[in-house]
Amino acid sequence: MLNKSENLIAALEAMLFAAGDPVETTKLAEVLELDIETVTKMLGHLSALYDERNSGLMLVRIDNKYQLCTREAYSEEVRKLLEIKKNTPLSNAAFEVLAIIAYNKTVTRSFIEQVRGVDCSGPISSLVQKGLIEEKGRLDLPGRPLIYGTTDRFLRCFSLNSLDDLPELPKTEEVEQLNKDNAQTSLFDEAQQEEATEE
């Protein structure tokens, strides 16, 4: 059974893993309700644990921020895995995220998660890797959240000249009817089916 200190270190690890991007020490301290000095010591302990067990992960410090990264020794295996992931089909979740981004032009991850009601870090990462969406900058708000938008590759994949060519969103009544008929499909699938019919 973990003691309090081990629980806090495990919480730090979980937070850094979930964040993906570098996280400020002050933010980690705020969440754990601890002083910065204590959190810094725990981060040092976590880094030492990775080193002691020859873990494939390592803790990197960037200014006053920390980030979990893979070790350079395993870069080739990681690269091969990501290449494989790039060629995998899109999941339903990824299609939903893509639709939200496309119809809203540019959005933050938090906006997407508010719409879907679940964590979307996985689908977003997958879409970035496939080159369908990209970072478009940051909002001038606390935390400076990233803004995501679609790419030219997205337009090519769906045979669009611009986002203005996206099919119109169905009306509320139409969506309700689709739900009743159990015939819900992705907006993009529907558009592709219409194109195939016209041909």
How would you describe this structure to a colleague?
56% of the residues lie in helices and 14% in strands. β5 and β6 form a beta hairpin. It is globular. The strands form two sheets. The protein has a three-stranded antiparallel sheet. A three-stranded antiparallel sheet has the order 4-6-5.
Sketch the topology as an H/E string, one letter per element: HEHHEEHHEHHEEHHH
**Helicity, as a percent range:** 55-70%
Main beta sheet:
3 strands, antiparallel
Cα-based radius of gyration, to the nearest Å: 21 Å
Strand order of the largest sheet: 1-3-2
How far is the first residue's CA from the last residue's CA?
A: 64 Å
Tally of DSSP helical segments: 10
Report the portion of residues in β strands: 5-15%
Q: What's the shape?
A: globular
SSE inventory with pairings:
Layout: H1 4-19, E1 23-24, H2 25-32, H3 36-52, E2 57-62, E3 65-70, H4 75-86, H5 92-104, E4 106-108, H6 109-116, H7 121-129, E5 133-138, E6 146-150, H8 152-157, H9 172-181, H10 187-198
Antiparallel strand pairs: 1-3, 2-3, 4-6, 5-6
Helix pairs in contact: 1-3, 2-3, 5-7
